[in-house]
Amino acid sequence: MKMSHRTEPSSPRIPRRAILRGAGVTMALPWLESFAAKAATTTGSTTAAVFPKRFGVVFLGCGVNEDHWSSEGSGADMKLSKSLSPLEPLKSKVNVIHGLFNKGAMGLGIHPPQTGSLLTGAHLEKGAVLHSGISIDQMIANHVGQDTLQSSMVLACEQPITGFHESNFSLAYSSHISWQSPDSPVPNECYPALAFDMLFENRGSLVNISILDRVRERADRLSRKISAGDNTKLDEYMTSVREVEKRVEGMRKAQDKAQEEAKGQSKPVWAMERPANGLPEDLREHARLMCDLIAIAFQTDKTRVASLIISRDLSAMYYPFLEVKEGHHGASHSNNNDAYERITRFHVQQYAYLASKLNSMPEGDGTVLDNSCLMFLSNLWIGRTHNNSRLPLVLTGGLGGTLQTGRTLDYTSAGDENRKICSLYLSLMDRYGIKLDRFGDAETRLERI
Amino acid sequence: MQLRASLVTLALAAVPAFAASNQPLNQQFTQSVRPVIAKYCVGCHSGNSAAAQFDLSAYDSIDPVLRDYPRWELVLKRLNANEMPPKQAPQPPAEARHQIVAWIQTVRAEEIRKNASDPGVVLNRRLSNAEYNYTIRDLTGVDLRPANEFPVDPANQAGFDNSGESLEMSPGLMGKYLEAARQTADHLVLKPDGFAFAPWPMLVETDREHYTIQRIVDFYDRQPTDFADYFQAAWRYKHRVALGEPKATLATIATENKLAPRYLAMVWQFLESKEEVGPAVKLQTMWRELPAPQGHQPDLAHNACVQMRDYVRRIRRHTEKLFNTPAAPGQNPNSQAFVMWRNREIAAHRRDFDATALRVEGEPPQPDPIITRGPTFGKGEEIAVKQAIADFIKDRQNDPDLAVPAGQRARYEAAFARFSSVFPSGFYARERGRFYPVDSYTNDSGRLLGAGFHNVMGYFRDDATLAELILDDKGRKELDTLWQEFDFIADYTIRTWQQFVFDAGGGGRGGPPLVKPTFDESTTQATIFRYRDHFLDLAAPANNPAVMAAIKYHFDSINAEIRWVEQARKDAEPRHLDALLKFAARAYRRPLAQDERNEILAYYHELREKGNLTHEEAIRSSLVSLLVSPDFLYRADLVDVSFGAPAPAAKSQTVTQKGK
Question: What is the pTM of this model?
C-alpha cells in the first residue's frame, strides 16, 4: 500500500536536484575554504575537544490533537500526555514548550501562509512569486555548516506540491520549511538512497575532483603550447587548481578520520547500509531511514543541521497501519478524534526514535544528543479550525550544556510580546554563536529558555 | 601607480636576458638579500619538489631576478603580507624582511624609470571580475554577476587588457570560480531544442513552474487583444484622407499599430455591415458617431473607442457560454476529468454565446448563469463569493441590451451569434480559480493558467481563440512551443497526475477503492489506463455518452502527454550535447578543435556512465568544467599564440574591454 503521493520518479527523467546541490552550490565551496579550520579541530587531540553543536527540525503538518498534547511539571516528575508519551524515556532531556506563536502567519488565510514562514518568521507574498526569508535551520547551517561535508540536510518523506491554494498563496509554501534564500526554498530530498549517497559516497566531492582533474589536464596541455611569460600565469592557475584539489582530498580524509575516531569512542560507528533505490512504500520505513541518516550524519559530523518533513502541510499521506481511513489533511479536520491522535503520536514516535538514536551515540562524557537541539513542531495547533494561535513544540537535547532540559515551559498566558516563536529562534541561534538583533517579528530573546 | 608598475612587469617578462647593468642593486642582492633568502626560504623553495614549484636557490644575481620578475613581484607581496615564510617556520628579523622588500621595490622603480612610456605587451591573463560578469551575461543571456562575490581585482577594476599581470589566480579565487560556475550551472534549463539559463536557480519544482508559466503569460500579455485598439485602427482607416494618409490600407494600419491584420479586417467588416437588431446596433451607432478628424488628429477617437470596447466586454461577459460538469450518479462532479471537460467546452465556445441570457418579452425567466462553485473556507469567503455571484446575476438580469421584444428570439439569437463570433468572450484564459467566471470578484484571481482544481496543482491551456483570430503562423508556433516547454521543463502533467493518484481525491470516491500503484509504476500507460477503466466502469450505469467521452479523453490525453515528454526528453539529449559544444566554443572565444570536442563529450559520458549521474546532472557538471577551464578563464584570445585551436584566436564574441 502506498503511503503518500510522490512526485519524483527515480528514473533519470527528472534531475535529482538534491544531488546537484550536494555536488556544489551552497555546500561544496564554503567547506573548501574553511578546510583548515576543520582540519585543526579533527586532527587536534580529542581530550579537550569541544563537540560540534547540531540542530535538527522534525515537522508534522496540519497540527496535533490538542486534547492529548500537554505536559506538566519538570524533571523526573514531569507528566507527558498521550501524544507525547513516546518521549517518556527521554524526558530528562526534553523541554515541552507551550504557547509560542508566529504572528506573521496569522490572518493571511489557511495552510500555505501558515507554513511558509514557520521557520523564517518572514512576511509571505501571495501569487506566483515566492517570498519568505532565511529559515533558522539555514541560518545555523550558514554559520556552523561550513566545516562539514554538507552544510545541511533537507529531507522529506512526502513530495512537494505546487500550484495555488485557495488562499492564493503558492502550495510550495506548504511543502517546504527550509529556506536558504527568501525567493526559493531548499529542495527537499525525498529519496533515502540519494541522501545516503550524498553522505557516504561523497558524490559531490568526487564530481569536484573529476572536474578539477579535467581542467588540470587541459592546463597541462595548454602550457606545452605557449610562451614562458604566459606560462607564469598558467602556473598560477595550475597551482590554484592543485591546491583546491588537495583541500577536497583532505576534506575527504578528514571525514574518514572523523569516522574512525567516532568508531574508537563508541565501539562501532553505527553502520548503515545504503537504502534501496526508489521511495520506500511504507512511511514507517521511510521515516526511520530518514532519521537514521540524520543520526549517522550527525555522529560522523558530515552535517550539523537537518530538517525532516515527515508529513507536509496539506499532507496526502495515508496511515493504513494506524487504521485511519482518511488521508492526513482530511483527518486533521477532525483532529480531536482518536485517529488523528494516532497520527500525531506516530510523528512524535519518529522524533523520539531520532532522539534516542542520538542518545545512544557516546560523544565525550555524554552523547551526540547532549550536543544537539532537536525541535519538533507543527504549523497548526487545531486542524479543524486551522487555529495557529499557539504551536505545539518540543525541544530535545542539551546543546552542549547550554540548554537546560527536563522542563515544561508554558508561555500561553505570558502575553503576545513574550511568546514569539522568533524569540525562541533568537535564543537558540545565540547558542550557536549567531547573535542577531532581530529575527522575524522578534527583537527580544525568549525568557526562561 | 600600481597600474604602471604592472605594465613594467609585463615589459620585463617579455624582455629576456637583461644585462646586469645595475651594479649597486646587484651588490645589494648578493650581500643582503640572497643570504636571508638562503636562510629562511630555500629550505622549502628549492630542488625538484620546490614548494609552489618556485626554486629560490637558482637566483644568483639580479639578472635571473629581472628575467623572472613576475615571481619576485609575488615574493614582494607575500613578504609584505607576512604570509611567507609560513607561520610555523622560523621568521626572519623584521629588518631583514624590510631590506628584501625595499630591494624589490627599488628594482621595480628603476625598471619603471627605464621603461617609461612603453605600454608593454598584452599577456595571457585571467578574466577580470568585470569581464567575468559580462562574459557570463553574454553566454547565458542572464545578468547573474557571480563575480560580485569575488575579491576585488587589484589595480584592474576596469579590466584593461594590458595590465594582465596584476590579475592573479589563487586557490581562494579558484574556489570562488568553482562556486560561481556551479551557481551559473544551477540556472540551466534543458529545452527540447537545446538549453537556456533562467534568471533564478532551477532546482525546485516551483521555480521551474514559475519560469515556464511566466513566459506563457508574458506572451499573452504581449498580444494585441484590446478591442479599443481595433476600433481606433478602423476609425483611422475610415478617415485616412483627413488624417493625411490617403494611401493607408487596413493592412498597413494594422502593421503600424502592431495589430493582427486579419482580425482588424474582420472588425472593420463587422462595423461597416448593417445589423438591424441585437447588440451590434448600438455598437454600429457608436461607431458611426465617432468624431471626424479635422486635420492630423490621430487620437481624437480614443476615448469613444474605449467606450465601445467596454460596451462589447459587458455584453460578452453577460453572454459568455458556460458549462456545467456532466452529471453522473456516483461520480464526483468536481473530479478532474469533468472539470477539464468543462474547461475544454468553455474554451471551444468563446465565439459562441449563452442564449439563456436573452430576456424575451413574454417568455418565462431563464435560469441563472452557470457559475463554477468550488468549496469556500470561512464565513468571510462564503459571504464574498455569494455576494459576487449575486452581483453577477443581478448585473446580467438588469442588462438592458439583453432584452428582446416578444416573438423575436430567433432573429436576436442570430444577431448575437454574429456579434459573438467577431467578439469572443475572451481570447485566452490567463488565470482561473474555483468560481469561474466571477474569480475576479473573489480571492481566486491570480492563479495563472490554473485548471480550477481544488487544493491540488493543475493547469489548463485555453488560448485557441487567440490562435484563431490574432496569431499568425509564427505566433502560433511560438505559443505551442512555450506550452510544450512548460511540460518539458516543469513536468506539470506528470506531477498533476501523481498528485491525483496519491492524493485524497484520486481514489475514485463512491466506488471500490483502487489499489494504488507503486510510485515508479504510477505513470506507466498501464496504470493510467487502469484508472481510466476504473472510472469508466463507475460511470457506465449512468449511460451518459458525454460522461464516458469526458473520462476517456481525460486519461488518454494525460497518457499521451506523459509519453510525449518522455520521448521528447530522450530525443533532446543529442541536441543538448550539441548545445554544450556550442556553449564551449563561445566560452573559449574560438572554434573548438576536433579533439576538444571529443574530450568534452567523453567527459559527459564518463559522468553518465562511471559517475552514474543523470543526463541533466552530467550536462550541469560539464558546464561547470567548461567554466573553470583555463580556456574560459584566461584571455588567450588576446595573445599572439595559437592556443590549441585549429585557427588563430577567433574574434571574441564576448565583451572585451580594451585599454587605450
Answer: 0.77
